[in-house]
Amino acid sequence: MGVISADVPDWSRETPRRFWDPGQKLLLAIRQYQYWRGRSGMVPAFFRKWPVLRHRFWTVVTGADIPLNCRIGGGLSIPHPNGIVIHPQARIGVNCLIFQQVTICSGVEIAGHVDIGAGAKINGNVRIGAHARIGFNAVVLSDVPSGATAVGVPARNLVRRASDFTASAGVAHEAEHPAGLPHSETVRTKSAAPVLVVNKPYGSEPTEIDPNTGFTKPSKPVA
Predict the structure, then answer these.
(1) How many CB atoms lie within 10 A of CB 205?
(2) Do β-strands 71-72 and 91-92 pair in parallel, antiparallel, or remain unpaired?
(3) Strands 156-161 and 183-187
(4) Which domain holds residue 208?
(5) Number of domains in the chain
(6) Euclidean distance between CA atoms 113 and 29, whole angstroms
(7) Are residue 54 and residue 156 in the same domain, yes or no?
(8) Angle at Cα 47 formed by Cα 44 and Cα 49, nearest 5°?
(9) Residue 178: DSSP 8-state
(10) Measuring CA to CA, which of 53, 113, 188, 220 is 20 to 30 A from 10?
(11) 180 with 163: CB under 8 angstroms?
(12) What is the DSSP letter of 165?
């Protein structure tokens, strides 16, 4: 699987694939309006009216509330736009994926390539890091680090995989680990701080790195 950028928009994700493609047509109306809004004169003023009408039509069809003046990066994917609500003061990065019934409130900042599951709610001055995942029906009230997965009500950061980041580019990727090679991940424990667990090859016991001493010791992550 190729790496999805958190910085460079992939506009093909917004291209309508058929005549009846409500989510993509809604985004197209927004993009066209914003294009003409940035230009002055009688001609741009005339052409702004048509995207407004199309936006109203597709808003009714989809049941979504995505305003014309929203601040959304390119490459947004909304395969099921029903019930999506995005506040105009929220910021959404490039190449994000948003499912149905998601609410994104004022003050929220979402970095690039963030996947948001159906029914999730993000409220307050919250920042979601690049390549993060928000679980279904999660209620996010605090920041989510880059590459983390947040689930629950209120949402908690469950896992941040070191394997999701390339050392050179500093971006997440989905490559699987080769069999028998060690890797590391951060798991949720009873304490507030996450614990880095080094998973050794199959058949060996995972070890925990003590953040205070830097030494390893046997560890069993708490479910």
Answers:
(1) 9
(2) parallel
(3) antiparallel
(4) 181-223
(5) 2
(6) 22
(7) yes
(8) 120
(9) P
(10) 53
(11) no
(12) B
In a domain, 5, yes or no: no
Does residue 173 belong to any structural domain of this protein? no
User: Kind of pairing, strands 109-110 and 91-92?
Assistant: parallel
Residue 151 domain-assigned? yes
Both 95 and 152 in one domain: the answer is yes
d(CA 37, CA 58): 19
Provide the pairing of β-strand 207-209 with 216-218: antiparallel
pLDDT tens, residue order, the chain (223 aa): 568 899 999 999 999 988 899 999 999 999 999 988 878 788 888 888 899 999 999 999 999 999 999 999 999 999 999 999 999 999 999 999 999 999 999 999 999 999 999 999 999 899 999 999 999 999 999 999 999 999 988 888 775 554 444 433 444 344 344 444 444 444 443 334 443 333 344 344 455 555 555 545 555 554 4
Question: What residues form DSSP beta bridges with 186?
Answer: 160, 196
Query: Residue 149 pairs with which residues in a beta bridge?
Result: 133, 159
In a domain, 119, yes or no: yes
Based on the domain organization, do 149 and 186 belong to the same domain?
Answer: no
What ranges make up the beta strands (E) of 21-177? 71-72, 85-86, 91-92, 97-98, 103-104, 109-110, 115-116, 121-122, 127-128, 133-134, 139-140, 148-151, 156-161
Distances (CA, A) of 12 to 9, 16, 48, 161: 9, 9, 23, 28
Retrieve residue 167's tokens: 């050392």
